[in-house]
Amino acid sequence: MRNVGTVVRGIRTPIIKENDDLATIVVDSLMKAKESEGFEFRDKDVVAITEAVVGISEGNYVTVDEIAQDLKNKFPSGNIGVVFPILSRNRFSMILKAIARAMDKITMLLSFPSDEVGNGILDEDVLDNSQYNLSSIITEEQYKETFGTWIHPFTGINMVDFYRELIKNENCEVEFVFANDPKVILNYTKDVLTCDIHTRIRTKKILKEAGANTVYGLFEVMTSPVGNSGCNPQYGLLGSNKSTEERLKLFPKTGEKLVYTIQNRLKELTGKTIEVMVYGDGAFKDPVGKIWELADPVVSPAYTEGLNGTPNEIKLKYVSDNKFADLSGDELKEAIKNEIRQKEADLKGNMLSQGTTPRRLTDLIGSLCDLTSGSGDKGTPVVFIQGYFDNLASD
User: Fold this and answer.
1) Which of 235, 195, 264, 350 is nearest to 47 (CA)?
2) In terms of Cα–Cα distance, which of 394, 367, 392 is closest to 8?
3) 267, 223 in Cβ contact below 8 A?
4) How much of the chain, in percent, has pLDDT values that exceed 70?
5) Is the pLDDT confidence value at 367 over 90?
6) Rounded distance, CA 315 to CA 332, Å?
7) Cis peptide before 113 (omega within 30 of 0)
């Protein structure tokens, strides 16, 4: 009988640079960890690699000037609306610099009281006691008068002031407006760049149906190279991160080849079928700061076939307290094992049974990995997970 369930290990690797052979580095680091830590590989173990080092190793970078050129090609008028960007110095400020460099005027529509991923832009208590509500349209002057002194408690800055200064430094005119309806931007311009992440398709559809002239999303910018630049055909600028003051690292585009290369090499070395995935932001929310971590377009842009689907789990506390309330000890454990086996049979027959909230395996495992590796300064861009697919019936 196993006395330990899921085990998660952060795997240290050499510092990964552009054009490194990442598959070899990952496999070698895992084999070294096995020798030093004394674990054995098993079928259905999981190896996860953070998207940051995937993008670095494949050299998938773009410059501010390259983004600006793509935007000029898409918006020759030089006057656009920028709709629902997130409030981030790392994620969006470099993109905004490129937009401002390409345009003569920007009208920026910001959602309130926070952006899509929970970064606040005003004091919600002040909002509740003001003349405005979530359906209001608030001008820049009205924002300044009512909310303009508010600064974010974590960053210590007001992002409206930060974005305004950034845009003006590129000799671009800017006007802010605050509303939660994307159609409001059409009162100012018919050429629109939508910058939301998870609602991007819907927002673009709403604007096109409402009479917008030209509408692109960030996911459609830098989908092909400008000169010798990098690109991401699927996600464009979504998932990008600041690299230097003039360069961004894009979301990985070769992840699928990488995960199967690593899986095949580990199979040759260990004889085990080990699942492999690339992960970015986890899908969880900070209950204090109210920030939803997922600023990437997906948690996992690439993973092996065995990570498709949702967990096969029962609600242990539910069946223990209800269906088997009169059982205890070994008798209770055996009953629960039988319940798990029954659910497995039900799933094969497409029958419904009492279980946990359905979430994709890649979202759950990717969130676990993001929490394990942190922001990267732990030096563990690879996470190795054992026992994730075990349950009481696995003993």
Assistant:
1) 264
2) 367
3) no
4) 84
5) yes
6) 14
7) yes
Q: Are strands 275-279 and 46-50 parallel, antiparallel or unpaired?
A: parallel
Tokens of 216: 């692109």
Q: Which two tokens stand for residue 62?
A: 């773009």
Among 59, 57, 3, smallest CA distance to 25 is for 57
Closest of 233, 226, 242, 230 to residue 72, by C-alpha: 226
> Where would I find the beta strands (DSSP E) of the chain?
7-11, 46-50, 61-63, 79-83, 105-110, 138-139, 173-178, 191-194, 214-217, 241-244, 247-249, 275-279, 302-303, 382-386
Sequence-ordered list of residues with C-beta below 8 angstroms from that of 305, at least 6 positions apart, any chain: none
Residue 296 tokens, joined? 């990437």
Query: Which residue from 161, 166, 219 is spatially nearest to 194, judged by alpha carbons?
Result: 219
Please check whether residue 300 is in contact with residue 363, taking contact to mean a CB–CB distance below 8 angstroms. yes
CB burial class (10 A; 0-12, 13-18, 19+) of residue 147?
A: buried
**64-74 vs 93-102: helix crossing angle, rounded to 10:** 50
- In DSSP terms, 9 is beta-bridged to 384
First to last CA, the chain: 5
Closest CA to 108 of 121, 96, 122: 96
The pTM of this model reads 0.85
Q: Give the pair of three-digit tokens for residue 178.
A: 């605050």
* Separation of alpha carbons 102 and 259, rounded Å: 37
The mean pLDDT value for 190-204 works out to 97
Six token digits for residue 374 = 């942190």
Domains of the chain: 7-59+252-311+358-394 (3.30.1330), 61-249 (3.40.50)
pLDDT band at 319 (very low <50, low <70, confident <90, very high): very low
d(CA 305, CA 327): 39
CA triplet 164, 168, 169: central angle to 5 degrees? 115
Residues paired with residue 194 on neighbouring β-strands, in sequence order: 83, 217
**d(Cα 105, Cα 167) in Å, to the nearest integer?**
9
Specify the pLDDT at position 285.
Answer: 73
Asked whether the CA dihedral 69, 55, 273, 304 is positive or negative, the reply is negative
Average pLDDT over residues 182-193: 98
Q: Per the structure block, which two tokens stand in for 13? A: 């690797």
Buried b (16+ CB within 10 A) or exposed e, 191-202: bbbbbbbeebee
Q: Is the pLDDT of residue 86 over 60?
A: yes
- Interatomic CA distance for residues 340 and 392, integer angstroms: 8
